[in-house]
Design goal:
This protein has about 200 residues and is mainly α. The chain has one domain. About 75% of the residues lie in helices and about 5% in strands. A two-stranded antiparallel sheet has the order 1-2. β1 and β2 form a beta hairpin.
Amino acid sequence: MSDQEDFDDLHLETDDGQQTANIKGNILGLIRTTQRNYINLTNIADNKAHILISINSLMLTILIPIILANYQIIIDLKIYFPLGIFALTCLFTIIFSAMVLIPFSGKKQSSEIQLRKTRRSPFFFTNYADLTLEEYNLLFQETLASKEITNQVIISDLYYFGLNLASKYNLVTRAYKTFNIGMVLSFLGFILTLFF
């Protein structure tokens, strides 16, 4: 079955019943745009995470020697509490940011496939990493042989890629909130310790 035949039944009609142009190209363009957006947004999330990791790692690198060299002064001035908040803020921000950079494993998609006994996707490596070349070739041919199966696989891939992207942005948001709140609490802690 050719690509043209796969999409021959997808048409738009005008109000007067006349058939308009086939929308095969629009569908393929939409899929490509969605995948391109996924890649671009993933890169943006990863870049934000890299920035946070760099900034907070630098601050911890500067902070730790200062604390060790001035331990007694810090105890005397009782500024260990705001410094502790500052250090924990940097640490948790780094942890959340590092979680953003964890590659998409596809475990949730694989679990869903096993649970519902749905067809694997031959288009994403985590779904066929355990298959032999012959098994993968058979899976690929069977997927392309049916328009319905192909559509289901594409929809499934786009859905789970979207879930992964949402997870990344949730972690980025959590990292930025941790950083912002921690910086404010640290500053307030210093002010309260020094003037009260």
